[in-house]
Write a structure and sequence with these properties.
single chain; mainly alpha; two-stranded antiparallel ribbon; 25 helices; about 70% helix; Na/solute_symporter
C-alpha cells in the first residue's frame, strides 16, 4: 500500500469521525450553539480547551522554534502560564457571571453599549489575525501529505469545518475537539517515543532528553551542542542575552493567552462554577502532555536532521544532492526546503553563513561559498517520521494530527467571531427584539461568513501573515485581559474607564508594533528597523503587549476615579460574582 493511500485513510477516517460527531451533537438552541447548553463535563472541556489551544502553530511550529535553542522556551512558558492565570483569576468568576461571550460579559459588567462594541472589535481583530495561521497551516499539511495544492486543501478544510461548526455550534465543536485532541496528541507523541527509542533507548522522550546519545556515553544535549557548534550555529543550550525582553515576551504570551476570546468562552460551557476551575486544571494536564514532549522532540529531531545531511562522523562530507532521500525530494516540492549548489560540488552544505568568523575560517577552508540549504522550521515535526524512516502508519497519523491541530483552533476562533457578531452585535446592540430562532439563523450565517473570510485569507494570506502572532497576542494582552480582570476584581471601574483603557492600551500596542513591522504591515513603512538597538528599552514588538496591558490598567483606573462611580446595582453584581 502506497504512503499516499495510507495518508488518505487516516485523514478520511478522522474527517468522517468529525462529521459524525457534528450530526450527533448538532445544536438545537442558541444556548447549545453558544455554550453547548452549559452541560460539558470538565474533563471533556479540558480536552477540548487543549485542542482549542494546541493550534497549527503549536503542532507544526513550536518544535521548530525550540529546535533553535533555549531562547525560544518563552513560547512554552508563556502559553502554559497563561492557563494558570485563567484557572486562578478568570475561569470560575466568568462562569459564575453566566454570559455567552467575552463582549457579553464586558457589556453587562460595565452596563455600556460602547464597551461591548469595543470588545467586539478587539475580538474580531484578534480572532481574524490568529485564524490566518490556522488555515495556512492546514494548507501546508494537505499540500504535503495528500499531494494536493494548498488551495485545494484549504477548501476541503473549510468544508469540514462548515459541517461541524455551522451545524453543531459550540456543542458540535466541543466534542469534535475532544476527538481532535486525541488524534493530534497521538500524532505528536508517538513519533517522539519512536525517535527517543532510536536515539537514546528510552521510551519516554522526557527521560531521553537528559540521557546519553546512543552508545556514545555522551549526553544528547552535549552531542547536539557539538554538532550545531561545528556548523557555526549557537549552542542549543546557550543563554539569552536580553533577559528583560525574554521576561516581557513570556509575560505578554501569558496575559495574551489568558485574554484570547476563543479560549475564554470554553469556560462558559460547564455545568457548575467549580467545574470551570477543574476544566482549566484538566486543560493544563492535557497541554502539559504536549509541551513537555516538545523540547525533547525538537532537540532529537534537529540532531536527526543534521545527521541525515552529514551522514559521516564529521561535517566534512555532506550528503550528495543527487543521492538525496525521497523525503527530501517531496519536501522540496512544497517550497519549505530549497537547495542551491553555490560551489558546484554536488554536495549539500548547510551551515550558519551569517556567523562571519565561522564563514571566514572553517567554511572558507572547506571551500564552502555560502549556506546552500534553506529549511523552514515548520517542517521539523511534519517531516520527522519520514526523516527517521518510521512506519507508514506513523506518517499517516502525523498527517491526520497536523490537520486536526489546524482545524480544532480554527473552529474555535470562527465560533468566537460568529458569536460576537450574532449575539453581541445583532442581538444585544442592533436588534434587541430578535427571536431565538432568528438569532440562531444569524449565528449560522455569521459562521458561514467567517469561514468564507478565513478561507479567503488562507488562500490569499496578506504579507503580514508572519506578524499576526504579535498582533493577536498583543491585542489580547492589552485590551481583553485587563478589562476582564478589573471587571471581576475592581468594582470601582466604570464604563468610561473600561472603554478608555481598552482603546488606549490596544492603540499603544498596535502603534508600537507598526513602528517596527510597518504600518498595517505594509513593507517599507516602518519608522525604525526591527533590531534590538532601535527597540525602546530593549523591548521588541513581540513583547510590548504586557506594557499595553499596564497602560490599560492605569488609564482605566485614572478615568474611573475621575468620573462617576458605577451604579449600586453594578457594584452589587460584581460583589455577588466575587462573594456569592
Amino acid at each position: 500500500m502506497s504512503q499516499f493511500v495510507v495518508n488518505m485513510i487516516f485523514v478520511a477516517a478522522s474527517f468522517g469521525l468529525y462529521t459524525w460527531i457534528a450530526v450527533w451533537a448538532r445544536a438545537k438552541s442558541t444556548r447549545e450553539f453558544y455554550i453547548a447548553g452549559g452541560e460539558v463535563h470538565p474533563v471533556f472541556n479540558g480536552m477540548a480547551t487543549a485542542a482549542d489551544w494546541l493550534s497549527a502553530a503549536s503542532f507544526i511550529s513550536v518544535a521548530g522554534l525550540i529546535s533553535v535553542g533555549y531562547v525560544n522556551s518563552s513560547f512554552i512558558l508563556g502559553w502554559t502560564g497563561g492557563y494558570v492565570l485563567l484557572a486562578t483569576l478568570l475561569a470560575p468568576y466568568l462562569r459564575r457571571f453566566g454570559k455567552y461571550t467575552v463582549p457579553d460579559f464586558v457589556g453587562s459588567r460595565y452596563d455600556s453599549r460602547a464597551a461591548r462594541l469595543v470588545a467586539v472589535v478587539c475580538l474580531i481583530v484578534i480572532s481574524l489575525t490568529y485564524v490566518i495561521g490556522q488555515m495556512t497551516g492546514a494548507g501546508v499539511a494537505f499540500a504535503r501529505f495528500l499531494e494536493v495544492s494548498s488551495t485545494t486543501g484549504l477548501i476541503i478544510s473549510a468544508i469540514v469545518v462548515f459541517f461541524y461548526a455551522v451545524l453543531g455550534g459550540m456543542k458540535g465543536v466541543t466534542y469534535t475537539q475532544v476527538a481532535q485532541y486525541i488524534v493530534l496528541i497521538l500524532a505528536f507523541t508517538v513519533p517522539a517515543v519512536y525517535l527517543s527509542l532510536q536515539m537514546t533507548g528510552h521510551f519516554l522522550p522526557q527521560v531521553g532528553f537528559v540521557s546519553d546519545f546512543g552508545n556514545t556515553g555522551q549526553p544528547l544535549l552535549h552531542k547536539l551542542n557539538e554538532v550545531v557548534r561545528d556548523l557555526g550555529f549557537q549552542d542549543y543550550t546557550a543563554d539569552v542575552e536580553n533577559k528583560l525582553n525574554m521576561f516581557l515576551f513570556t509575560l505578554t504570551l501569558m496575559v495574551g493567552t489568558a485574554g484570547l476570546p476563543h479560549v475564554i468562552i470554553r469556560f462558559f460551557t460547564v455545568p457548575k462554577i467549580s467545574d470551570a476551575r477543574w476544566s482549566a486544571g484538566w486543560a493544563l494536564v492535557f497541554i502539559a502532555l504536549f509541551y513537555t514532549t516538545a523540547p525533547p522532540l525538537a532537540s532529537m529531531a534537529r540532531l536527526n536532521l543534521l545527521e541525515s545531511i552529514y551522514p559521516g562522523e564529521g561535517i566534512e562530507e555532506a550528503m550528495v544532492y543527487e543521492e538525496r532521500p525521497e523525503w527530501f525530494e517531496k519536501w522540496e516540492t512544497t517550497g519549505l526546503l530549497t537547495f542551491e549548489d553555490k560551489n558546484n560540488d554536488g554536495r549539500i552544505q548547510y551551515y550558519n553563513d551569517k556567523n562571519e568568523e565561522y564563514a571566514a575560517t572553517t567554511a572558507a577552508e572547506r571551500g564552502w561559498e555560502g549556506n546552500e540549504l534553506t529549511i523552514n522550521n515548520d517542517i521539523l515535526v511534519l517531516a520527522l517520521p519520514e526523516i527517521g524512516n518510521m512506519p507508514s502508519w506513523i506518517i499517516g497519523l502525523m498527517a491526520a494530527g497536523g490537520i486536526a491541530a489546524a482545524l480544532s483552533t480554527a473552529s474555535g476562533l470562527l465560533l468566537a467571531i460568529s458569536s460576537a457578531v450574532s449575539h453581541d452585535l445583532i442581538k444585544n446592540t442592533l436588534f434587541p427584539q430578535i427571536s431565538d430562532k432568528a438569532e440562531m439563523l444569524a449565528a449560522r450565517i455569521s459562521m458561514v461568513g467567517a469561514i468564507l473570510i478565513a478561507t479567503w485569507l488562507g488562500i490569499n494570506p496578506p504579507g503580514f501573515a508572519a506578524q499576526t502572532v504579535a498582533l493577536a497576542f498583543g491585542m489580547a494582552a492589552s485590551s481583553i485581559f485587563p478589562t476582564l480582570m478589573m471587571g471581576i476584581f475592581f468594582k470601582r471601574i466604570n464604563a468610561k474607564g473600561a472603554v478608555a483603557g481598552m482603546s488606549i492600551g490596544a492603540l499603544f500596542t498596535i502603534c508600537y508594533i507598526f513602528m517596527y513591522l510597518g504600518w498595517f504591515f505594509i513593507p517599507g513603512t516602518n519608522n525604525f528597523p526591527n533590531t534590538p538597538e532601535f527597540w525602546v528599552f530593549g523591548i521588541s514588538p513581540l513583547s510590548v503587549g504586557c506594557i499595553g496591558a499596564v497602560i490599560n490598567f492605569l488609564v482605566a483606573i485614572s478615568v474611573s476615579y475621575a468620573t462617576e462611580e458605577p451604579s449600586e446595582e453594578i457594584q452589587r453584581m460584581v460583589e455577588s460574582v466575587r462573594y456569592p
